[in-house]
Amino acid sequence: MNSGTPTRRIIFTIALSVLLHSAALWLLQVELPNSEALLPPLSARLEAVPGQVDVPTPEVEPASPPAETEHTVTTSSEPESIPVTEAASPVAATPEPESIPATEPASPVAATPEPESIPATEPASAVAAISEPASIPTIEAASAVAKVDEPVTHPLPKHAQLKFVVYYGQDDFKIGEISHQLEISEDKYVLKAETKSTGIARLFKSYQLIQTSHGKAGNFGLQPEGYEEEQNVSSGKQQMAVAFNWTRNKLHFSHGGQTELPPDAQDILSFLYQLSQRPLHNKILSIAITTGKKLEKYDLEIGAEEEITTPMGKLRALPLRRLHSQDGDGMEVWLGLEYRLLPIKFRQIKRSGGMILEVVISDIRVAGE
C-alpha cells in the first residue's frame, strides 16, 4: 500500500503534465491563426506603397547616390590622366583581378625600351667625347703625329743670342767660338755671326770671320736682301757680298756675275734660322743657298729625333743631313726641339782637305715673340 502510493503520485503528476502541455499547444494553435489573419491587411498596404513610390521616381533621393558614385569614378579617372598607366591600373584591378597581372607585365614591357634608350645615348655621348677631351689620349696622339706629318712653323724670337763652341775633328779639340745675334724689328731683320779662334789654336793661327745677313721678316720667315762676309786672317783681310734682287729674281755677286734667283733662296747664315719656318714633314727638304761665291741647291734629308750631348746638357734634336753635294762637301744640322727649332749643332765636312768642323751650342738667350 505505502509503496503503491508514490507510484500513483508519479503517474498522476506525469498525466497532469501531459494535460498541461497539451492545453498550451492547443492555445498556441488557436492564437497563431488569429495573428496570421491580421497580416493580410498589412501586406495589402505594402503593395500599395511600392505603387506610389514608382510614380515620383526621379524625385526620390536614392537616384542621387548613383550620381555621386559616378562623380567618384570620374574623379578617380582624372588622376589617371596625370600618372597615365599607374592610376588606370588600380581601377582595372578592382572589378577584375585578372587585369592586375595584365597591367603589371605591361608596365615592365613599357619600361624595357626606356632603359634601352638610355644606354643607346650614353655610348653616343662617349663617342662624341672621344672625338673632342679626347680628345684625352686620342687628341695627344694626333698632335704628336701632326709634329711629323704636318707643316709646323715656330715663330722666330724678336731678339736672340746664341753661343757655340767650335771643335776640330771628332776629338773634342776646341779651336774657337761662334756667337749669333738675331734682331727683328717690324718687318726687317739683321742677323750677325762672329767666329774667332781661341785657346791654343789662336797661338798658331789667328782667325776671325764676321757674317751679316739682312732683309725682310714676316710670316714667311726670313727673306734676305743682302749677305756680307769678312775674314781677318794672318795674311790679310778678305771681303765678299751678294745682293738679292727679288724684283728681277737675280742674285748679284760682289766679285762680278749674277745668276737666277730661285724662290725661297737663302744665304749660308740665314738658312740656319729659316729651317724652322719650312715644313719638315717630308723626308727631303730642298733649298737654294749661296755661300757668297756661288749658289747651290742643298738637298737635306730629315732624320729621326735623337739626343745630343752639349755643354748645356743633353738636348732633343731633329737632324738634317746634306745629300749629293757637287763638290763632295758635307753638312749636318741639328735643330733644337726644345728651343723653337733653332740651330743647336751643325757640322761641316771638307772632303778636299779632310777637315771636319763641329759646332755645338753652349748658351741660348731669347726675348720677344
Task: Please provide a written account of the structure.
The chain is α+β, with helices and mostly antiparallel strands and 369 residues long. It is built from eight helices and 16 strands. The chain has helices at residues 4-54, 64-81, 85-93, 99-111, 113-131, 137-149, 199-204, 271-274, and strands at residues 159-168, 173-185, 188-197, 208-218, 221-233, 236-245, 250-253, 258-260, 266-267, 284-290, 295-302, 306-310, 313-323, 330-336, 343-350, 355-367. The chain has a 16-stranded mixed beta sheet that branches. A hairpin with a 4-residue loop joins strand 7 (250-253) and strand 8. Helix 3 runs antiparallel to helix 4 (99-111). The relative contact order is 0.08.
Q: What layout of secondary structure does this protein have?
A:
Blueprint: H1 4-54, H2 64-81, H3 85-93, H4 99-111, H5 113-131, H6 137-149, E1 159-168, E2 173-185, E3 188-197, H7 199-204, E4 208-218, E5 221-233, E6 236-245, E7 250-253, E8 258-260, E9 266-267, H8 271-274, E10 284-290, E11 295-302, E12 306-310, E13 313-323, E14 330-336, E15 343-350, E16 355-367
Parallel strand pairs: 9-10
Antiparallel strand pairs: 1-2, 1-16, 2-3, 3-4, 4-5, 5-6, 6-7, 7-8, 10-11, 11-13, 12-13, 13-14, 14-15, 15-16
Helix pairs in contact: 2-3, 3-4
